[in-house]
Amino acid sequence: MDDKYYTLAEGCPFASNKTAVMMRGGRGGQGGGLGLLQDTQLIETLAHFSRERIPERVVHAKAVGCYGEFEATRDCSDFTSASFLNKTGKKTPVLQRVSTVGAESGSADTARDVHGWAMKLYTDEGNLDWVFNNTPVFFIRDPIKFPSMNRSHKRHPQTHLPDQTMFWDFHVGNPEGIHQLMVLFSDRGTPKSVRFMNSYSGHTYKFTKADGSFKYAKIHVKTQQGIQTFDRQEATKIAGENPDYMIQDMFEAIDRGDYPVWNVYVQLMSPEEAEKYEWNIFDMTKVWSHKDFPLQQIGRLTMNRNPQNYFTDIEQASFSPSTMVPGFAASADPVLQARLFAYPDAARYRLGVNYQQLPTNAAKVQVYCPFQRDGKMRFDDNYGGDPNYVGSSVKPTKFYQDLKGSDPGTLSLHTDHEKWAGEVSAYNSEITNRDFVQPAALWEVIGRVPGHQDRLIDNLASTVKDVKYPELRKNVYSLFSRVNKELGLKLQERTETSIKAV
Ligand code: HEM
């Protein structure tokens, strides 16, 4: 045993485990007594316990997390000035958090849901967060719909139950999500574990260079363990038997040294190609053809270290698409633009205004940001007496480009590359027949795997049967008929038969 001993949080030695101090006597005898306000040990212990929980994330509350590394598999300086990609073999430490989306922190990992895939790359030019999903497309393209969409996937405001009527009512009324629904109700909607799934940026981002040029990019993270999925029945069974299945699978794999690996690819598109492309590249309900824009490998991701403490390493982690490094930038996808605001805002609410100082979020390079000071739970030296205003000649500090010698502005995260001129107007996310072209193609691809189309219909029917209103069910069948007539008909047949059978 070392010299360590228990203390209160301020250092006063903790007397013993059974020292609730009582005023004994009276009728209490040996067994009872009146508590005293002077019993600091008791009061501290109880008061801190009541404050152990912090707000859980409003979405993506349930997760598994770990650490690892990203290794650049090629020098990417032909399309980006990002330092972590400028040399073959360069390694960057990574924090990964993979989550379900809709349900609470205690919910089942194997529930049919999109899985979030957040990574913090602690690069030598500051942190880069890649906040992805395990699906390449999304339910909406107008960010104002995000809270509505998520509420319809959560609990009913009156019954407090998950509610299929609400779920399908949202999706019938906002049918631009049809592509994502096709993915979600396919086999990919119930992955076997984190190790056996891919993740995707979904959004178009930009890789930028110091000369002002840029390429649009989508990023793909592909499992080297192979895609593996549960069927609906297996997923439901495991949800009951072991709701933490994925957390356990990942923790134990890393613990026994069976480190999971993903290859990281990009699809690149020039601004000229984007102008002519048949799809709006700022619409995340669409993918880019791999034939036209082939995957190019840029790196490899290996996860090899479990958290030392779940709360400090994973729960206190905060990820945001706005956390970027020189050479990587946001595109004009309106959903992405809204996300740039939403995540730091959520972190300030959930963790406090100095969340960037928490060890798991802190950059591993020097941080000198004296224009962001004070605030609750500031726990560094707060830049001492350094000027807290810009433009000081008393104690000037260099800018990065003064050290690096590049042109001013080119290392900036702001997009000097694009010129925008236009009118302020409301965004129109109404659907057209074109929105069904990619889902229809996906239906054909699904058809190449024996039994997969049937499983998709079965997965859909198992939820549509719980929609209360026949008229709404009919609207669901019509929605899927627009993807493929046979799909719509079979879904109707399967659902209505199972309702009659009850
Ligand atoms: C308008 C669209 C969206 C909004 C407003 C939004 C907002 C949020 C918010 C508020 C959180 C909780 C953050 C926290 O408490 O720390 C969150 C988590 C997350 N979101 Fe989104 N989101 C949007 C779309 C997306 C999309 C398109 C993706 C994937 C491509 C995505 C991936 C994630 C992931 C992976 C997390 C969990 C991050 C973590 O592990 O801490 N979200 N989102």
Automatic annotation (TrEMBL):
PROSITE patterns: CATALASE_3. Its cofactor is heme. Residues 7-398 form the Catalase core domain. GO terms for cellular component: mitochondrion; peroxisome. Heme binds at Y343. The active site is at H60, N133. Keywords: Heme, Hydrogen peroxide, Iron, Metal-binding, Oxidoreductase, Peroxidase. The keyword Heme applies. Transmembrane segments: none annotated. One of its GO terms (molecular function) is metal ion binding. InterPro entries: Catalase, Catalase_clade1/3, Catalase_core, Catalase_immune_responsive, Catalase_sf. Gene3D superfamilies: Catalase core domain. One of its GO terms (biological process) is response to hydrogen peroxide. Pfam families: Catalase, Catalase-rel. Coiled coil: none annotated. SMART domains: Catalase (SM01060). Catalyzes the degradation of hydrogen peroxide (H(2)O(2)) generated by peroxisomal oxidases to water and oxygen, thereby protecting cells from the toxic effects of hydrogen peroxide. Belongs to the catalase family. This is Catalase core domain-containing protein. It comes from Penicillium fimorum.
